[in-house]
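During the reporting period the student researcher (J.K.) took over the structure-prediction task from the postdoctoral fellow and processed the backlog of single-chain submissions. One of the processed entries is reproduced below for the supervisory committee.
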Amino acid sequence: MPTHYCPGCGHGIAHRLVAEAIDELGLREETIGIAPVGCAVVAYDYWDFDCSEAAHGRALAVATAIKRVHPDKLVFTYQGDGDLAAIGTNETIHAANRGENLSVVFINNAIYGMTGGQMAPTTLLGQKTATTPAGRQKIGQGSPLKITEMLSLLPGVCFAERVSLHNPQAVCNAKKAIKQAFSNQVNKLGFSIVEVLSACPTYWGLAPQEALSWIEEVMQKEFALGRIK
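J.K. obtained the following structure tokens:
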């Protein structure tokens, strides 16, 4: 169905991968998704399974509660870099550290999209945003936060992988990782996270095709693809 996302945005692709993985696992009637605050705040309008909304950054707290009440359901969060790695850092780290049997789809587009293109925790050094017009600087603003690598160090995390949506092969790999994260939960293995590098042509100031190239040529140098744990 049509979505509200900008041309070239990766959210539509990521939504479809989530839906395909759930259908292929035969879990649509057993799934509860947690929508974030951000560009994907109305993800539940595009998925035909049960969803819940959460306050900004609190998706994993809400998911923890739902999973504990419904331990046999597939419960996952779908979160952007601001929701998961900025205002939600606390919930993210502690849910992972507790080894909550949850799955996380983490969309990293290196910027705040819904609120106007400000710097995010994942914004690259030198990248221009609404709040870093001269480019992000290491002194004063720090380096991009590699939250997936950080989480992989915790014993409660069973699976961490970074994937991308910059070309068809990468999209296929992303689907495999998302499906694996869901399967891990079904098998009660613990906390799984899949970080998805996704384009934001609007606030990157690039055409959609240029944005895909930027992911491959620039973003992946900072956020390397592959299985982390």
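The committee noted the following: The first helix runs from residue 11 to 24.
J.K. will present the remaining backlog at the next meeting.
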